[in-house]
Amino acid sequence: MRETTANLPGMTAHRPTILSALILIAALVSTLAFGGDALAQPQVHVALEDVRVCPARNDDTAPPDYTSPTCRSVPIRELDPQGAHLWVRMRLPLAAEHLRGDGPFGLMVLGKMSSEVFINGSLVGTNGQPGDDRRSETPGRIDASLFVPHTLVHQGNNIVDIRMSSHHGWLELVSPVHAILFGRFQDPTRIIITAYWPSLITFGVFLVSLVFFGVTAWRNEDRSQSALLAAAALFGGTELLVETARGLVAYPYPFQDVRLILITLCAAGFGLCILAYLLERMTSLGWRSKLARILVVLTALVPVVILMPGFDGKTVGVLTSCALAGLAWSALWTFQRRKGAAVLLIAFAAFLLVLFQVGSYFLDVGYFYAAAGVLAFAMYQQAQSLVAERRQRRLEARRALKLQTALDQARQKSAPAQIQLVSAGRVDYVSTDRIVQLKAAGDYVELHFEDGRTSLYSGTLGGLENELPPAFLRVHRSHVVNTLFVSALERDAGGTGELILSNGARVPVSRRILPAVRSALADKRPPQ
């Protein structure tokens, strides 16, 4: 909802893939599906014809007769109270069906102004307080509904007189008066939000994207690309909240200027962040070259914002300019045969086609679905990339472990370590390359040697395990084996397993650690 009635429906990468095109198609479908009549309840416009306008003064207590030479007739679409204090007379035609039913009537005044409303000569109410200047005016709400007693209206033509002014704010809007509507009394924000609630569904995507890419950038994983996408999510989510604010809060009309500026700035920020992300993803240019290209696009946006009439036009112009830049770059990348560029070219072309066909309605719903879809797909690809990267890191770590194990085993063969063992007051120093396995035996540890001998020594298996070199592996709570003497690993139907050692001994492997043992044995196998 911006400054024209056209905004009230019913009120006259990661490497891009084919999913980019699907996102744009979904945006078009959502626009067509949700871009219907926002005013489901029956409402009646004042007659959309020329209206009589006269100067107003602070001490006026009733409408004038509109015969003064200072009065004039103007098309209703050109009605403009900005920087003025006016009386306006308009016709409200009501049929019998408009007056049927229960409940009070209301007159909704939507626009950037303060107002005082009379119907058929009787005061209905005020929205703020119109005045001759900024000091005497009290700003009204951007959207107000005034109670209308049944006795004030009748079938046929009714006369609506509105004293209005708009001295606050600093933007000169093309259409500051958005609509004057008659119907059952209701909160205007409840009507307006019906045009926006489908857009609010996407807010979760913007929030999750901001957190996801923000954390990814903070952890220094694809920092520049993640930071750009986090910024795009911030701009998109902020624009969504500001865009839908009119359907959430009945704010004073001066805030409308701030709202319109923020919408245009956020649209520009989102577009520029996506373009910068594509430059980062699709090219190997230095940061100065990338920055120069973004600055060229930013410079082109300035005359677009200045020259385009209305803030709907400015926002559409900003998005169109960014999409045209993306289209041109995609065409160049396609010519250079860069992977994914052709699909990116189709996606930008589809976006422009939808934007030109749907116009400002696309800004209310479809644009947010397209933006959220792009970020959601980028999260999907980023997550895939992170998973692949971590898998590669684990693979490299395993390779490093295998190399280190092979070096340890080679070192044990050439210069085996010795451990100190105590038994019956005697201390023995045993070379580890002679030990086949160790087995817990109460308060003792039973050692099995390569030559078939066994010996009991004082201590615990856990304590002794800490002194053994990496070639030894604990495969059961009661068994540690020297992997240099492992011949085979067998698994039975129950899920447990057994290690067969080179001396023919069979050592049980617990079901819980069987997968880890299998992986460890693979890592500890010496190179051929």
Straight-line distance between termini: 73 Å
Morphology = elongated
Strand content: 15-25%
How many separate helices? 13
Helical residue percent band: 40-55%
What does this structure look like?
The chain is of the alpha+beta class and 528 residues long. Helix content is 43%, strand content 23%. It is built from 13 helices and 20 strands. The chain has helices at residues 19-34, 188-192, 197-200, 203-218, 223-244, 255-282, 287-307, 311-335, 341-358, 360-364, 366-414, 461-465, 514-524, and strands at 43-45, 50-55, 72-75, 85-94, 105-111, 114-119, 122-127, 143-148, 156-165, 177-184, 418-423, 426-431, 435-441, 444-449, 454-458, 472-476, 479-482, 486-491, 497-501, 506-509. The strands form five sheets. Strands 3-2-4-9-6-7 form a six-stranded antiparallel beta sheet, with no helix packed on it. It has a five-stranded antiparallel beta sheet with strand order 15-14-13-17-16. It has a four-stranded antiparallel beta sheet with strand order 1-10-5-8, with no helix packed on it. The chain is elongated and about 125 Å long. The two termini are 73 Å apart. The model is unreliable at 1-40 (pLDDT under 50).
